[in-house]
């Protein structure tokens, strides 16, 4: 059977110049190869963490990894809402009626990039590579952040993990009943229970981007610095946390531009008309810089040092997109922009094992709820986001399956008076007259928050400080680089941390699993929230396809999240991208971990005319 796309529509804003008509584009030519003169330059605001696709958990590393590695499925680059399509498969997976068995058939003739680990031979992608990759997720040495998707779900995985954890040695050659190679190009995944959303794992690079065993064994722990995949691009040079340069993979298969935008999607239809039939990739080099501060990223784009601005800094919104309309001076430059309601969520998590903010006793819950009530998300939306966000009512975003726009919680309630009353009631009072409260037992009450040293985070920190001062809670801020904070978070060492979570699939499950008890720690539940009632609802919902009944279960989980407050959910952002007129076909993927480089072209003629101004 084919997996149906999510039938939800998102609001889109397209600004400035209309897309060039199809007749102005180059005629499709199967002989086209990437032109080395075509260079795409842009910047990330966060540094990469690893080029090992099964090791990462952040959006930015996943994007670059998906440019070099291939999962079996991907999302149609033009489809809105998101739609799964075959990537390295000859067709969509065959899915059993009970959603327990997935059979996938790999397309013959797909090859890895050349590498000495292959002994001078071209190395074809096979079913065995995907089974090996899925087994890697189970390797205790890797501590894969997506482990929760396989552990307990794959038939035989529990017994396998119990044995290798006891023996302290991974067994890649030992069969697992639920991971089976049928023939050279066919493999099968069997689950213990029905899980309709499990199919999304075949489009998630962290789970199923194919890696070659020979390369992994050659580099060992250093595999994250030596990527070798079957994707459209390969890593040419790398200056850690500074700049990455990618070039086309010479062994990349014959792929041609296509897609299925909605009939009424004028922008998508125009892109398809112009690029349909072009051989992929079209660009000869991609340069990705790391610039953490917002103003330097913006200035670099305006100075034409970058061709595309990935996520416009919100503090320039009033001058760049006043009233969500591209400023006239930018229109005159031919710059295009698009505002996209992202499938994302910003939130602050509390470490439920922390002696101060953790715990499930009434006084512990009261403290977290008071902290949440004291913070006004709308201030952050107005001051930091410049209005380009909406308050969150659920721990999942609009636009995903399971979201009901009519469902509301008190998650965004701002009520300092109620916060102070809760604190007073549960014994968090100021005993020494210094203006700050102590713990009910008289011990010190100090919140220790964590953030990066960027200007944006400094502004958010100040909002939190002001909010906590308003209810008499002392808060301290520790600054560290994002990759370092991620490592500490994985190890459960942070009391609280403000994060943004982007959808890894177009289903609310993508966030709800991050509050599921067994996923505590590096497997995604950073708060280590463990509540039997929540876990039972999650397990019930996992076995159900998208339906009104499942949506009600999602809503019950959202209510429990608000009641126990392991997260302070904050907002859903509206992201703005900008690009110069010679960048053809750019469209931000709704699932942000998707790589889009091969679907973009550089029109050298327009670029030359533009740079001659």
Please explain how this structure is put together.
Residues 1-30 have low confidence and may be disordered. Strands 1, 14, 15, 16, 17, 18, 19, 20 and 21 form a nine-stranded mixed sheet that branches. Strands 2-13-10-9 form a four-stranded mixed sheet, with helices on one face. It is globular and about 75 Å long. It is built from 18 helices and 23 strands. With 613 residues, the protein is an alpha+beta fold.
Question: Features of this protein?
Answer:
single chain, 613 residues, alpha+beta, four-stranded mixed beta sheet, 19% strand, globular
Topology:
Elements: E1 13-15, E2 35-44, H1 59-68, E3 73-75, E4 84-86, E5 94-95, E6 101-105, H2 127-138, H3 157-167, E7 179-183, E8 186-190, H4 205-208, H5 213-219, E9 233-239, E10 243-248, E11 255-256, H6 266-275, E12 279-280, E13 283-290, H7 294-302, E14 308-309, H8 317-320, H9 328-332, E15 336-341, E16 344-350, H10 362-374, H11 377-383, E17 389-391, H12 416-425, E18 446-451, H13 455-471, E19 474-479, H14 482-490, E20 496-502, H15 509-512, H16 532-542, H17 548-564, E21 567-579, E22 583-584, E23 601-602, H18 604-611
Parallel strand pairs: 2-13, 18-19, 18-20
Antiparallel strand pairs: 1-15, 3-4, 5-6, 6-8, 7-8, 9-10, 10-13, 11-12, 14-21, 15-21, 16-20, 16-21, 17-21, 22-23
Helix pairs in contact: 10-12, 16-17
């Amino acid at each position: 059977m084919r997996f149906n796309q999510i039938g939800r529509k998102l609001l889109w804003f397209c600004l400035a110049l209309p897309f060039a008509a199809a007749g102005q584009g180059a005629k499709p030519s199967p002989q086209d190869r990437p032109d080395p003169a075509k260079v795409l330059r842009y910047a990330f605001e966060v540094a990469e963490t690893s080029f090992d696709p099964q090791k990462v958990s952040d959006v930015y590393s996943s994007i670059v990894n998906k440019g070099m590695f291939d999962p079996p499925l991907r999302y149609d680059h033009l489809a809105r809402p998101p739609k799964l399509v075959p990537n390295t498969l000859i067709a969509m997976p065959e899915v059993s009626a009970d959603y327990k068995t997935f059979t996938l058939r790999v397309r013959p003739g797909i090859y890895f990039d050349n590498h000495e680990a292959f002994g001078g031979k071209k190395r074809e992608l096979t079913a065995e590579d995907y089974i090996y990759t899925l087994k890697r997720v189970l390797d205790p040495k890797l501590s894969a952040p997506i482990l929760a998707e396989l552990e307990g779900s794959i038939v035989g995985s529990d017994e396998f993990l119990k044995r290798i954890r006891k023996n302290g040695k991974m067994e890649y050659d030992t069969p697992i009943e639920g991971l089976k190679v049928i023939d050279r190009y066919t493999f099968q995944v069997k689950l213990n229970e029905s899980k309709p959303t499990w199919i999304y794992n075949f489009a998630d690079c962290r789970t199923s981007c194919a890696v070659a065993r020979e390369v992994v064994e050659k580099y060992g722990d250093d595999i994250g610095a030596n990527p070798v995949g079957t994707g459209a691009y390969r890593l040419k040079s790398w200056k850690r946390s500074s700049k990455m340069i990618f070039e086309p993979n010479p062994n990349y298969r014959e792929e041609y531009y296509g897609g299925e935008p909605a009939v009424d999607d004028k922008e998508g239809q125009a892109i398809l008309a112009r690029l349909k039939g072009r051989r992929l990739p079209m660009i000869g080099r991609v340069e990705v810089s790391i610039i953490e501060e917002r103003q330097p990223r913006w200035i670099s784009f305006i100075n034409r040092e970058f061709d595309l601005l990935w996520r416009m800094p919100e503090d320039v919104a009033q001058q760049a997109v006043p009233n969500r309309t591209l400023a006239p001076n930018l229109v005159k430059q031919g710059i295009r922009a698009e505002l996209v309601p992202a499938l994302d969520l910003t939130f602050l998590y509390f470490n439920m094992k922390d002696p101060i903010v953790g715990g499930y006793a009434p006084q512990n819950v009261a403290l977290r709820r008071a902290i949440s009530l004291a913070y006004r998300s709308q201030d952050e939306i107005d001051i930091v986001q410049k209005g380009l966000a909406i308050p969150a009512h659920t721990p999942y975003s609009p636009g995903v399956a399971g979201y009901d726009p009519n469902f509301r919680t008190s998650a965004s309630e701002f009520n300092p008076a109620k916060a102070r009353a809760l604190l007073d009631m549960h014994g968090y009072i100021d005993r020494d007259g210094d203006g700050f409260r102590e713990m009910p037992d008289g011990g010190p009450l100090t919140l220790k928050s964590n953030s990066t040293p960027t200007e944006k985070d400094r502004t958010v920190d100040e909002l939190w400080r002001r909010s906590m001062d308003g209810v008499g809670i002392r808060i301290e801020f520790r600054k560290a680089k994002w990759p370092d904070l991620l490592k500490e978070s994985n190890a459960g060492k942070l009391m609280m941390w403000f994060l943004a979570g982007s959808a890894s699939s177009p289903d609310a499950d993508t966030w709800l699993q991050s509050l599921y008890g067994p996923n505590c720690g590096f497997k995604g539940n950073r708060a280590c929230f463990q509540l039997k009632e929540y876990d039972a609802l999650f397990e019930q919902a996992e076995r159900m396809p998208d339906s009104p009944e499942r949506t009600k279960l999602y809503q019950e989980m959202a209510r429990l999240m608000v009641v126990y407050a392991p997260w302070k959910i904050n907002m859903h952002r509206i992201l703005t991208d900008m690009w110069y007129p010679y960048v053809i076909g750019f469209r931000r993927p709704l699932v942000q971990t998707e790589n889009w480089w091969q679907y973009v072209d550089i029109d050298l003629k327009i670029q030359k005319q533009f740079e001659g101004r």
